[in-house]
Amino acid sequence: MTNKEKKHHLHIELTQEQYELLCRQAKACGLTKRAFLTRLIEGQPVRARPPREIRELRTEVHRIGNNINQIARSVNMGIARPEDARNALFLLGQVYGLLSGLEKS
After folding, report:
1. Measured between alpha carbons, how far is 15 from 21 in angstroms, rounded to an integer?
2. CB 58 within 8 Å of CB 99
3. What integer pLDDT is reported at residue 18 of this predicted model?
4. What is the 3-state secondary structure (H, E, C) of the chain?
5. Which of 5, 17, 54, 80 is the Cys-Cys partner for 50 at CB 3.0 to 4.6 Å?
6. What average pLDDT does the structure give for the chain?
7. Confidence class for position 36, pLDDT limits 50, 70, 90
């Protein structure tokens, strides 16, 4: 067994407050307590998952992007007007701006 494969067990004692904080932080990141602590020890980024609203907004932005692609194809085939594509791209830019602002807050 190599050093990388060798497992070490660690027993630590936490106060009730510390344990609850660990549980909350791990849950916010979508990780188990073990995975959360391992990432902290290894210096890996540990970030909270985005709220459900932001995930839903991202999904909606992706759907809008698909619609934009469909509009672009129809413009290229001569079915839609170029101004339709310009309007769609303008709206998509606004949505991306809102999404970016939400993620920063």
Report:
1. 10
2. yes
3. 96
4. CCCCCCCCCCCCCCCHHHHHHHHHHHHHHCCCHHHHHHHHHHCCCCCCCCCHHHHHHHHHHHHHHHHHHHHHHHHHCCCCCHHHHHHHHHHHHHHHHHHHHHHHC
5. 54
6. 82
7. very high
Half-sphere exposure of residue 17, counting CA atoms within 13 Å on the CB side?
0
Burial of 42-64, coded b for 16+ CB within 10 Å and e otherwise, reads eeeebeeeeeeeeeebeeeeeee
| Per-residue tokens: 65 | 């992007």
Residue whose pair of structure tokens reads 């692609």 in the numeric block: 69
Residues 48-97 have pLDDT tens digits of 777 777 778 778 778 877 877 787 788 788 887 778 778 777 877 877 77
